[in-house]
Design a protein that fits this description.
The complex is a heterodimer.
Chain A lengths: L1 H26 L3 H30 L10 H23 L5 H17 L18 H30 L11 H33 L8 H22 L4 H25 L11
Chain B lengths: L1 H12 L1 H20 L6 H18 L9 H30 L8 H6 L2 E7 L3 H15 L2 E5 L4 E7 L6 H22 L1 E8 L3 E7 L7 E17 L5 E12 L2 E8 L4 E3 L2 E10 L5 E7 L5 E6 L5 E2 L6 E8 L8 E7 L6 E6 L5 H5 L4 E8 L1 E9 L3 H20 L3 E10 L2 E9 L4 H18 L5
Antiparallel strand pairs in B: 1-20, 2-3, 3-19, 4-5, 4-18, 5-6, 6-7, 7-8, 9-10, 10-18, 11-12, 11-17, 13-14, 14-15, 15-16, 19-20
Helix pairs in contact in B: 2-4, 4-7, 7-9
Classes of the chains: A mainly alpha, B alpha+beta.
Chain lengths: 277, 450
Amino acid sequence: MWNIKILSYVTFFYLGCFLLYLGILVFRRRSLEKIATYATMLTLTVHTISIILRWVESHKMGIGHAPLSNLYESLIFFAWCIVFLYLVIEKKYKNHILGAFVLPFAFLTMAYASFSPDVNSRIEPLLPALKSNWLIVHVITCFLAYGAFAISCGLSVVYLLRKTGNKIWDIFPSQKQLDDLIYQTIAFGFTLLTIGIITGAVWADKAWGKYWSWDPKETWSLITWLIYATFIHCRLVKGWRETKMAFLSIVGFVSVLFTYFGVNFLLSGLHSYAKPS
Amino acid sequence: MRVTLQRVLKFFTSVRLAIFLLLILAVACIIGTLLPQSQPPEVYLKQFGNVGSKIINAFSLYDVYHARWFQVLLSLLTLNLIACSLDRFPKTWRILQYNAKKEIDEKFLSHLSFNAHFICKLPFEEAKEKLSALFKKEFSQLEVASNPDFVIHVKKGSISHWGPYIIHGGILVILIGGLISSIFGFSGMMFIPEGEVSNTIFLEGRKHHQVYNLPFSLKCDKFTVEYYDNGMPKEYLSHITVIDNQKKFKTTIKVNGPLDYKGFRFYQANFGVASNPTVTFEVTERKTGKKFTLTAPFNTPVPLPDEQGAIKVVKAFSDLMNFGPAFQVVIQKPNQKPQTSWVLSKFPEFDAMHRKGKYTLVVKDFTRFTGLEVKKDPGVWVVWIGCIILVGGLMISFFIIPQKMWLKLAPHKQGCEVWLGGMASKRRETFKHIFQEWANEVKEVLTCGT
């Protein structure tokens, strides 16, 4: 089980990357920017390779399936989505310090996956209900959406700090840019969440015979969807900007976290594949 | 009267109402997930006391998603969605029709929210050609006028303004599909023992306790479960023969692999011990260890080999107290009291350990039934079409940024003079970025300083 070992190292690499980004913030050394970015890219590459390795290993065991089928695998992929989307944003906006507020999400997710005794990291065969091509599309779209929402939450925290007017935070993009960036990540996340819910519905229709059955997971994804829909409407039509929006984006992410973890731990339903063992 | 009507209209067309409804729906959904749904009244009474259960009853909180008020909220949202779209439509139309006044001069350009001005060394005629070529490549909609000044007007991405209408149209279609599903669709369960034929569906949901008879029948030839090496179930398979008058064909139904036939869909949902199963035992003689198999039809005594009695299966359960399939057998011996015992198929040693006697019993096989979920849902395609419209609308709305720019070129003693102006009717911050890039590109093409 090489992949599990490498992935546990990846956790610490992400911690290192986070410290590098924090270093830029604290020491104001521009030279650290490149190092932090390259370190993150390298870690993401290793992360990607170990996910592929896990896939290959499952095929060698004769129960081959995409590594997206239980809580451990979903956490690993969640962290991957966060870092991947962050690097895309960093490249597009040429700002290297937001990492200090995004990478902790990746690190914590990886740490939880790798070191929590509740999370079973073994490769296990697929239950009949999960054997479907919709699994891959559904999980990828949902987790890219979750990743985008995680980033928008990090950015909202930056926004609120920036708003305090303290000079330390001047290194960050202007409030207007941040506001726009938060909106863009949420628009991206919202579109993917919509696709994720729809692919889930198509799959549910095929596996359970109902495209919508008010299962807690479904309902919570709808709640998250409603909260972000509210966000978009407030912004587009009411012209809300600034602090209120940042708060709403954080509330949205809390709802994402509940959809992801809360439902698995606290509520029972059809969608119990990602339960800790 | 007219004032009231206007007020009502204003109320329905307000985005405030939309935001309020979205949040209330979110809260309703949260209640629906936190409060256990569809429990018998005693459960609520026990957990929430007298007052609590009264509140639950008054607001039908035991079944939030089907409560009248929930449906009212959904209808209000639908009305609001239509009203808002109609209300905003003229505004969008104006934005789309907006073509600046015919005369594009410096004053107009400098009043636009985004503008740039520079002087370049390139001669006027050459600059004209280069600029036309640059914009022609990137914009589908391009107007060039050169009387009296050389002016280019370009725009693209106007479709983005239709995005919200497409999105809301999609949601409307989905809601209509859902309505069709709930009115004309139904679902239910079919239970077919192996070897038997059935066309009876026990309906679920609103038509609870009703029975529907299919115009054709299904025969369950066999039900099988396949396992992985570690004992986890791999596949649940029903081998089915569809019998439709003279037509007959064989097929299989598995989880994630439903059968579609004549507008009905059959899903593998359940299985268990048939109500009158034929059980096959492996019988071992304790003393000699000699083994043989014995097939016992339900409730029929089957003689044991030494003519020392008979065995009869009298009860069968799919799951007896979480021990899995269980069969109650009665062993009758001449001149003795009948011996009654349970044989568990998941625990082969159970009989040998808990019952004395000449023979020990192990369950080898038994007749199963397959439980098929049957669904007829004419709304499902409407829902999928709505979903496609919705996603298309989101893409158009979020990822296409409308761009509208004007450029004026005039001869100058150093070469030529350029005024560039842009207008964002949406996504100002992003457009600012795009406009800056365009300004740089124009400068590069014309090889200007500042």
